[in-house]
Amino acid sequence: MSILNIKDINLLNDKKKNKILSELNSKISNYSAEERIRWSLKNLPCTHIMSSSFGIQSIVLLHLMITQKPDIPIILVDTGYLFPQTYNFIDFLTEKFNLNLQVFRSKISPAWQEARYGQLWKKGIQGINFYNTINKIEPMNDALNKLSVQTWFAGLRRDQSKSRKLLSYISIQKKTFKVLPILDWSNNEIKKYLKINQLDIHPLSKDGYSSIGDTHTTSKHIPGMLEEETRFFGLKRECGLHEDKI
């Protein structure tokens, strides 16, 4: 199979795009995560990148990816409000695995944002959405454009939240192929992979956190809570990076 051309596919109407995507998803649905990555690297166009939040379980896809493509650009969108433990974890993993880490940020510093807009995360869903737009969506768009990205790998999984239940292994987002190699993995499979490969986990995982984002919109997991309720005060799960699909 020749390498798919994302530019040609983006010229098609939605019905034809969805037909191609349906065929691709059917093809790789029975593949292992390693096989999905191998197939995608071979058949989906360069530039390939992976986005990572360096959160609780991010090391799993990170390890899977660099095992096959050690120099793949790892995109971190830094809001300036990550936990100190997250920044230390990023430094540790970058040095340990010699990661090709590329960091993108808002053009407006956190201090300037607060001076201009106040603490947006305290202003309800509209404030949170605006915060996410300037701190996450716009920097990611900048990364996709500057690196001329055509294939984007990410570590989303269906059992993380209701909003991810219907995701596909391959989609088109922002006119770019989006690949989710571990989409069907359970928490038990994640733990098994961590154990077999003796991988370092985020230091806050032992402190009651099941999902990690910014300090001001992440809370510890309390028994009875859904994982998605630990983010954005339970008002929403997605920050917007993984939305806008055809």
UniProtKB/TrEMBL annotation:
<dbReference type="GO" id="GO:0019379">
    <property type="term" value="P:sulfate assimilation, phosphoadenylyl sulfate reduction by phosphoadenylyl-sulfate reductase (thioredoxin)"/>
</dbReference>
<protein>
    <recommendedName>
        <fullName>Phosphoadenosine 5'-phosphosulfate reductase</fullName>
        <ecNumber>1.8.4.8</ecNumber>
    </recommendedName>
</protein>
<dbReference type="GO" id="GO:0005737">
    <property type="term" value="C:cytoplasm"/>
</dbReference>
<comment type="pathway">
    <text>Sulfur metabolism; hydrogen sulfide biosynthesis; sulfite from sulfate: step 3/3.</text>
</comment>
<comment type="similarity">
    <text>Belongs to the PAPS reductase family. CysH subfamily.</text>
</comment>
<dbReference type="InterPro" id="IPR014729">
    <property type="entry name" value="Rossmann-like_a/b/a_fold"/>
</dbReference>
<feature type="active site" description="Nucleophile; cysteine thiosulfonate intermediate">
    <location>
        <position position="239"/>
    </location>
</feature>
<dbReference type="InterPro" id="IPR004511">
    <property type="entry name" value="PAPS/APS_Rdtase"/>
</dbReference>
<dbReference type="InterPro" id="IPR002500">
    <property type="entry name" value="PAPS_reduct_dom"/>
</dbReference>
<dbReference type="Pfam" id="PF01507">
    <property type="entry name" value="PAPS_reduct"/>
</dbReference>
<feature type="domain" description="Phosphoadenosine phosphosulphate reductase">
    <location>
        <begin position="48"/>
        <end position="219"/>
    </location>
</feature>
<comment type="function">
    <text>Catalyzes the formation of sulfite from phosphoadenosine 5'-phosphosulfate (PAPS) using thioredoxin as an electron donor.</text>
</comment>
<keyword id="KW-0560">Oxidoreductase</keyword>
<dbReference type="GO" id="GO:0004604">
    <property type="term" value="F:phosphoadenylyl-sulfate reductase (thioredoxin) activity"/>
</dbReference>
<dbReference type="GO" id="GO:0070814">
    <property type="term" value="P:hydrogen sulfide biosynthetic process"/>
</dbReference>
<keyword id="KW-0963">Cytoplasm</keyword>
